[in-house]
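Deliverable D4.2, example record:
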Amino acid sequence: MTTSPRSGADILDLAPVMPVVVVQEAESAVPLARALVAGGLTGIEVTLRTPVALEAIERIAAEVPEAVVGAGTVVTPDQARAAAGAGARFLVSPGCTDALASAMADTGLPFLPGVSTVSEAMALLERGVSEMKFFPAQAAGGAAFLKSLTGPLPQVRFCPTGGITVDSAPAYLALPNVGCVGGSWLTPADAVASGDWERITDLAGRAAAL
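Output generated by the structure prediction step:
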C-alpha cells in the first residue's frame, strides 16, 4: 500500500506526471485507477467535474489501496469537505481564495492551491504554503513563466497543469521549481469509454519514465 502524502511536497514527489482524470461513469473508476498504477503512476487526481466524481474517489480509495487518489477542481469549501469525506488523500484547486485555502487546510489533507500570478503565489506564501498548482499552465505563460520565478520565489514548487502534453512536459520537469506536471493526455476519453486499459497503462508507463 502506498504511503499517504503528508504535505504538498509529498504530492509533488509521487511521480513526474499526475494524471488529471475526468470520470464519466463510476464503474470505470477502479479499472482506470488500476491501469494507471500498473503503468507506474500511483497519484491520481479525480476532478470534481462530473456528478460521479465523489463516488469514483470512494471506489478507488476502497478498492485500489496502492493508488493515492485525490480530488481536483476543488472550487468551494463544501467540495473540499465532501472530497475528504469520500476518501480523497489530497486536494487540488484551479485557483484559490482565502475561504477555500482555509477549508482545504481544515480537512487536514495536503493540498495544492492553484495560482497563475506572482501575487497569488506570494499570498499563499504568507499562509505558509509553498507547494502550488500552476494553472492554466500553457495559457498563463508556460515553462518560461515558471523559470522566471526561480529568482524571486525560489522556495515555491509547482505542479503546472493545463495544456501540457507528453512532448512539452520535459521542458517543465527540467525546471528546479517544478515537482511534477498534471496531465490529462493519460486517460483519453475514447480509451476510457471503450475500456482500453492496456492503452492507458502504456501511456502511464511512458509518462512515469519522463
